[in-house]
Design brief:
6 helices; globular; alpha+beta; Alpha-Beta Plaits; 257 residues; 2 domains
Length: 257
């Protein structure tokens, strides 16, 4: 059979998994999908994901691809794989793409969403951050605008994951209020490890109405200095993983056709 490159769009609820990437011991989303593909085809494949989401993080539109030699039609992989996946992972689409396509390297943007609410919930406790403290919404919005453009996001990355180049271009950064939900949306060409959660944690910290007397809260000037002088200070406030969603991954049309 000729080799095919199959692109998958995947939705998952990350609560019961130790993140996307395969690792020894804990169950991961990549492992579960690769096992399902083996059950369907009898072939071991390496599933390349566009983003390595952490434990507890969710996805509405994770992208991934596999190179495989099998007779199954590309559009049929979706239903075939779903038959052997747990209910908290769903293949939303499966399409054939050029052999050169790589879901991680060819991505031109990634879009994330963060959900939090002052309301406690039994049903949504794993899908949003319960943050009961009053906040100045306008301060978070002002901080979100500072993120736009190209910056070195070293202060907002796990130190062990820093790379030679830690600059990212952010095209969209904004907070919304919808009923009981407080929603942050961000879109950029790339993201560092823990970057979105660290940005959210810092913005919430600087916007708290009641400041903690036992610890120094950030100011908007502090936040601005982190972006302009990344070598001087690190962000130490990280929002919990269960409020974060990888919403979509974008590609140039000629890369997927």
């Amino acid at each position: 059979m000729p080799e095919k490159n199959i692109k998958l769009v995947i939705e998952y609820e990350g609560t019961n998994f130790s993140g996307w990437q395969s690792q020894d011991g804990p169950v991961t989303i990549q492992d579960e999908i690769q096992k399902a593909i083996f059950t369907v085809t009898g072939l071991k494949v390496n599933l390349t994901g566009a983003g390595r989401t952490d434990a507890g993080v969710h996805a509405l539109g994770q992208a991934a691809n596999i190179h495989i030699e099998h007779r199954l039609a590309p559009e049929r992989y979706k239903d075939a794989i779903n038959s052997y996946l747990p209910k908290d992972i769903l293949i939303k689409s499966s399409t054939e793409v050029p052999l050169a396509f790589n879901s991680r390297k060819d991505a031109i943007f990634r879009r994330y969403r963060y959900l939090m609410s002052p309301e406690k919930s039994a049903i949504y406790r794993h899908q949003r951050w319960h943050q009961p403290q009053p906040i100045y919404f306008e301060k978070m919005q002002e901080a979100a605008k500072l993120i736009l453009g190209e910056h070195d996001f070293t202060p907002f990355c796990v130190a062990s994951s820093l790379k030679e180049n830690n600059c990212c271009i952010i095209e969209f950064s904004r907070w919304y209020q919808y009923g009981p939900l407080i929603i942050y949306e961000i879109r950029g060409n790339r993201f560092l490890h823990n970057m979105v959660r660290s940005l959210v944690g810092a913005m919430v910290n600087l916007a708290l109405v009641s400041q903690d007397k036992n610890s120094r809260n950030l100011t908007l000037d502090d936040f601005k200095n982190m972006l302009s002088s990344p070598e001087k200070v690190r962000a130490v406030f990280t929002a919990p993983p269960h409020g974060l969603y990888l919403v979509a991954v974008g590609y140039q049309k000629d890369k997927i056709e």
